[in-house]
Design brief:
Length: 123
Amino acid sequence: QVQLVESGGGLVQPGGSVRLSCEASGSIVSTYGMGWHRQVPGKQRELVASIINSGTTKYADSVKGRFHISRDDATNTVALQIDNLNPEDTAVYYCNADVEVYTGTSYNRGDYWGQGTQVTVSS
């Protein structure tokens, strides 16, 4: 019913920047919270940034000042701008969205995830 597709990952040099984008598609009626998480092998997935539909944002302490999350409700898109990348930012980045969908007979609310996009920070 709902698909989230991320884009924008890749190989970036230390100190560089990258912009990740995630577009949600499907029978979406409303979009509530949206967020970005990251995961490295052997570690738990961690929330790095989130934004609710009022525009209020939250960031993990480790990324404050370098990560900036934004959303466009007209296109159901959430973006993550990452500046001053360091090797510790290397991870698979996942977006998620709390959305309400119309199935044709009812309204359902659920949390959906993208497939992930790899960001590798290396010289």
